[in-house]
Amino acid sequence: MRTVTSVVVSNIKGGVGKTTTSVYLAAAAVERGHEPVVLVDADRQASSAEWLETRPIEGVTVIEAPSQRTLTRAMGRDDGLVVVDTPPGDERLLQSAAGAADAVVIPTRAGGVEFSPVLATLELIPARTPRGVVICAARLGTNDLEEAIAWWKSQSVSIWGVIPERVGIASGPEARLYREGLNEYAVVLRRALRGKR
Ligand SMILES: Nc1ncnc2c1ncn2[C@@H]1O[C@H](COP(=O)(O)OP(=O)(O)OP(=O)(O)O)[C@@H](O)[C@H]1O
Ligand SMILES: [Mg+2]
Q1: Which one-letter DSSP state was computed for residue 33?
Q2: Does 132 have pLDDT greater than 80?
Q3: Which of 51, 84, 147, 196 has its CA 20 to 30 A from that of 61?
Q4: CB-CB contact of 19 with 88 (8 Å)
C-alpha cells in the first residue's frame, strides 16, 4: 500500500521563502515523529541540498531531482513523508509536482504585489488538493501584514502560517535551525496534513 505523504512547497515567484519553508517543514516532520523524512530538491540551484550538506538534519534525507523525470521518481516513493522544494518560474514542473502532492504549501510575503504570483500558483494545483499560504518573514503588527491576512481571507484562501521575520531564520545554514521557526512550521505541517495523520 502506498503510504507516502507528499507536501509540495511552491510559488512561481522567486525569493519568497520556499527553501526556508521546505527545510523547516522537513525538520518539523522529524520532530513530529515522521520517519523516513525525505527532502526532495527540485530546484537546480540546489539550495536545500546545499543547506543540508552544510548542516545535516538528523532524520532527513535529501534527494536532488531537478528534472521532471527525477522528480516523478523521487515523489513516487512508497513510504514516509516527502517535502518538495521547487524552483521559481517553472510552471510545468510545478504543475506536475502539485499534481502528485497531498498538500501544497505556498510561501509568500505580505504586500499587494505578492498576490498575483500566488493566484497563478493556485491555478496549477488540482481542485481537491489541500493548499494554504504561509506568510514568510512577516513583520508582526504592521498594516501590510494585516492587509495581506485580510485579503487572503476575503479570497477564501487558507493561511497555514505567519512566520515572523527573524535573524535566526534568515541565517539559513549558517546557524542551527531557529526554535521559534521550528515551532511555527510545526503548526504549518499540522495544517497541511490535517486529515492525513
Ligand atoms: N522568517 C524569515 N525571517 C527572515 N528571513 C527569512 C525568513 N524566511 C525566509 N527568509 C529569507 O528570505 C530569503 C529568501 O528565502 P528562500 O531562499 O527560502 O526563498 P526561495 O523562495 O527558496 O528563493 P528562490 O526562489 O531563489 O529559490 C532568504 O534570505 C531567507 O533567509
Ligand atoms: Mg529556493
Answers
A1: T
A2: yes
A3: 196
A4: no
CB 113 within 8 A of CB 138: no
State whether the beta carbon of 50 lies less than 6 angstroms from ligand 1.
no
From the options 3.40.50.300, 2.160.20.10, 3.40.50.150, 3.30.930.10, give the CATH code of 5-189.
3.40.50.300
Ligand 1 touching residue 15 (CB < 6 A): yes
The pTM assigned to this predicted structure is: 0.98
Parse the chain into domains and list their residue ranges.
5-189
pLDDT tens profile 137-151: 999 999 999 999 999
∠170-112-86 over CA atoms, to 5°?
50
**pLDDT band at residue 77 using 50, 70 and 90 as cut-offs:** confident
Q: Which of 19, 24, 177, 179 to mutate to test the pocket of ligand 1 (most atoms within 8 A of CB)?
A: 19
To the nearest whole number, what is the mean pLDDT of the chain?
A: 96
The minimum-distance atom of ligand 1 relative to the CA of 167 is: 4
**Residue bearing cell 481542485:** 127
